[in-house]
Amino acid sequence: MPQLFTEGTPPNAVYFSFPDAWSVVKYDEEGEHFYRQYVEKLGVGLTAVDFVAAPADQTRLWLIEVKDFRGHEVANRKRLTSGDLGVEVMSNFMDTLAGLLAGVHGRDPALSSFAGTLHNPAVEICATLVVATDPLPDQRNAQQLPPGEKKRLAAELEWRSDILKKFKVRLKKPFRFSVYLLDHNQVDARYGWSAA
To answer: Is the peptide bond before 11 cis (omega within 30 degrees of 0)?
Structure first.
């Protein structure tokens, strides 16, 4: 039976499904969870991703941050186009790795299933940003779109490209991370998990 999780609140919620055999934790969850209980209370500004997941074979570590901009893209336009979002998410990835390592070393029971993955030098770290945005106009007919829709489409494609480029330059080469920018409703089955 798959493990089901929800990020956000309806109508802006993203639903995740992970295989039962996977280790999965909603890392930044409110309440008495490791990140909130210990890492956040250090007071040094460490941030967190939404989900940490690893398949049973411990060959991959998924660090998954979710950003839902549906109905809020205009309010977030500067954050999206300035590059601030990319920096924020990269911070979440790196801070989460530090917190996970500390939690495994401290033998936190909720994180113990990640010990083998974190101690595997060949593990593939998958730094993943999942975004939910208002539906985009059809790119195949971009020339026929009204000027406002053309501009919106161009802006969206540009900020996505910029973030992915930053991830590749700052995370892929120096740290050997695999980097992903995925639409919440288009997660490829080859990843082993899904979102909707």
So the answer is: yes
